[in-house]
Design a protein that fits this description.
By secondary structure, this protein is α+β, with helices and mostly antiparallel strands. It is about 25% helix and about 25% strand. The strands form ten sheets. It has a seven-stranded mixed beta sheet with strand order 26-29-30-34-33-32-31. Strands 5-4-3-6-9 form a five-stranded antiparallel beta sheet, with no helix packed on it. A hairpin with a 2-residue loop joins β3 and β4 (about 60-70).
Amino acid sequence: MKTPLNWLREYCDPDLDTNQIEERLTMTGTKVETILRHGAPSVENFVVAKVLSVEAHPNADRLRVCSVDVGAGEPATIVCGAPNVAAGQTVAVALPGAVMPGGMRIKGAKLRGVASSGMILAADELQIDSDHAGIMVLDELILACTREGDAELAPGAPLADVLSVGTDVLELEITPNRPDCLGVYGVARELHAATGAPLAPEPWTEDPGSAGELSAATVTVQCPDLCPRFTARAFEDVTIAPSPLWLKARLSAAGQRPINNVVDITNYVMLLTGQPLHAFDLDRVAGGKLTVRRAREGEQVTTLDGQVRTLDSEMVVIDDALGPTSIAGIMGGERSEVHDGTTRVLMEVANWSGPNIHRSSWALGLRSEASGRFEKGLAPEQCLHAQAIATKLMIELCGARLLPGTIDIGGPAKPPMTIRLRERRVESILGMAVPRERQREILVALDFAAVDAVADVPGGTPGAAPAGEPALDVTVPPLRREDITREADLIEEIARINGLGELPATLPARRGAYGRLSDTQRLRRRAVDALVGRGLYEAVGWTFTAPGLYDRLHLPADDPRRRAPVLENPLSEDQSLLRTTLLGSLLDVARHNVARGMADLRLFEVGRVFALDGDRAVSERDSVAMMLTGRIAPVTWGAGEPAKADLFAAKGVLEALGEALRVEFECRPGEQPFLHPGRSAGVLCDGEQIGWLGELHPLVAREWDLDGAAVMELDLDRLLALAAAGEHGYQDVISYPGLRQDLAVVLSRDVPAARATELVRAAGGDLLDSVEVFDVYEGPALPPPSSEQVGEGRRSLALSLSFRASDRTLTDADVVPLRERIVQALEELGGELRG
């Protein structure tokens, strides 16, 4: 919502500059998204002036040479092309040195041979209106100021005294629970509470209208559940004309386009109070009767934007004898809109069900300023607030005659709620004491009523005070009825206005709450730290994904990962599914970086993946995924080109993760549709497969414009459960030296090295401390005599065996029988010693 600062200061004007006001509002919960500038950057050199004479330009038919009193002694000569300039007018002038909204600086110049010292301004040149048909004439505006008791403005007076030359505009993010801040006065109340600056009286306190029956029109509400309150007033002798300059300036700064005085009044009142209004041409209301009802299925109405809208039975319309004339709470109808010939106006101000307006607006694809406010839940009491201001302006700006009576169906909502606020409860929740008088001051500033009370019923929650504790009975204002419903809400109001930065850092006062992480949380952090320690950077991808992802990953039709949950209300087609794997988001991140010259990537992501259980039930779990692209080490002058990311680089990351979590992983041959055949593996932990790793399939890598990648994904929930359940014992440090022996065994290529080392460990017994493969030799494919060293289809594994005892130094005699058992086990696997 755009809030012009000069309008805001009319109701609350603290001695603070724009940035300080922004900080106070943001820090107290009314977030300022940005500060804009509307109109001229500065008010300097913009003055009120008097046109003394107007003569034809000697060298141009469409130009006039004006003598203008700008309050600087000698009259200034200004060349003007406006057709409506005339002697005796009070006008707005930009003197040399003034900076226009577009950044242009006014300078003295010659126009067709005549020197000109300034510019007589049109409304569009100060962004007040889009009209450039003529200059602004300020006589009526000056006269209005004089009537209000101000001294008459002499030529040379600052233009900003009577008209907005330029103003800072606060663009606010109003949260759905604060519809009271959707109007300028509501924001002014927040500023008053945040700064202590005086707040002007509510602008709706004086109401020229009267209660009673309205004879000019009748209204029937058939769906009071969707229309809690409907009010209307009638005006005759209405003159449709352009709005005065001050109103145009205010609307333009707030992002509204001036149209005519009646429409501008409805927009002005909505911006001031937050309550939308709608003006009917009463002569176009067929039969003089309006009915508020649910629409009929397929019923149509032409709205003010000229579009024909097809309705359904959940929507609400206002109709007359000829059918629907507007869509309630969203947009008025074209048939009854105010036009240049309108002389009778029915001003409708109603309250509508927020959820219904939100649903109808979404279904129609039609969002308006009115619907955006109603869907947040306005208070029925706001209807007469808006009627009071609109009535006053209709009389003043349109010359209208107000007919006696007001249609008021529904009336105010339920009586206001009173909540007991206990002094000690405030302290227990905030962790600091806030004096009761300060509590009262804050709440009264926010329009609550607060009177002293005594808590005569002990609280049943931890931190509650005993009976007899001093307290406040706080009555919630109507505009906060939906937001403030309990004691904790009042404490939140006190905290944010008193200053969230003042609150101390304390732990919650709860039984069984301790200031430490759970076992699962500690293991999760340990896993993340291990990945970071290996040089990986964490990425955070979208939880949503596109339907085409699984085709790009080459997943077959029966792969369960294709059964992704479908969102009912997606942001876009590309985000219409919940992801079943983290690989897609990592590939998207990699493509984005590689396209910008970052080809060497080390990324990981920890996030949620989802699956369908049955037709509609959705299960979810945490996964961890990793991706390496490009080189696995930096380039240095003393070494050759580093190796590229491959299966073994991914396995190294897996082993680092296993060491951190104190679990053992096993990699067994396994294939995934998106991984390179023969360069992929399934990852097992405690005999259970919990993920996969390998090199990306070249065809899949091409889909993301990558030159290969090593990837891995594990079920993090299952991994952490296995890590938590594992027994992590400790061993004494062995002071006796180990005995190392090497052997080379020739095995079939089909036998995995992991299978061979597994048999060696089993045969070596407790004295075998470790076994590692330190060399693999297969021999060249050609010529055949070379491969005869190991045999066709076979390879040689060189194993390093380390034997160690905790109570003595081992000798060859201790190791020989173990070595023989190891050789025998390898022979049973089809192996033979080499050499």
